[in-house]
Amino acid sequence: MLSYTNSSSSPNEGIKSTPNFFAILTKANIIKALPAKKIEAPQKEIKLTKLHLELKGTITGSGSAPLAVISKKGSSGQMLYAVGDTIEHALIKAITEGKVILLVNGREEILLMKKSKKGSGVKTR
Question: Mean pLDDT throughout 17-26?
Answer without folding.
Answer: 63
